[in-house]
Amino acid sequence: MILSSETQPITIRQTPASAIESMLPTLIERLQETVSGGVGLGFFAPLSYRMAREYWLSIIPELVHGSRILLTAHDDSGFVGCGQLALSQRQNSPHRAEVEKLFVATAARGKGVGTALMEGLHHTALAHGRTLILLNTRADIPARQFYKSLGYREVGVIPGWTVSASGERYDHVTLYKELTYAGAARGAVAASSV
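Given the sequence above, the corresponding C-alpha cells read:
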C-alpha cells in the first residue's frame, strides 16, 4: 500500500520470508540503531550484529506459517522502518493480533512513517479478520502518546516489566484498539510486496 506523508510518499510492503535474507543488512542496521537510540524492543544496547541477525532469521518460520506478518516502510531513500503483526493462533481468539517491533529509522522520524506503518498494520489485520489489536510499550517513552493519538486505549501499567542491562526496571503499558472495517479502508491505496 502507498501512503503519503507530509513530505513524501511512503510505501508500505508486506515483506515475505523469502525477502528476509536479501534485506538482512538493512534490517540489522536499523534494529541496532533503534536499540542504541534507547528503544530496547526486547534487547540491550549495544545490540550485536550476531544477535540482531539471529532475531531476524528467527521470525522466518512464523512468516512462512502465516502467524506473523512483517510490514516494511520505504521512501525515496530506501528502507525506513517496519512493524509486525503477530496473529493469535489460539482457537478462542481468531479476532486478535498484537503489534510488535514497530520502529522507524532515526532520520525518518517525524515524517509520518510510524503512522503509515500503523495504518498498514491495521489494514492488514482487518484483511486477516483481526479486529482487536493489542500492543505494549515502555510507559516513559513517546511511543505511549503516539499510540494513544491513534485511538489506542490503555489497559494498565505493569511495574518493572522489563529491566536494563544494569538492572534498572521499566514500567510498561498495555494498550488496545478495536478496528472497524470502515476506518481502515481509507488508508489503502495499492497493495505490493517485496
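The chain has a mean pLDDT of 92. Try to locate this feature in the C-alpha cell string yourself.
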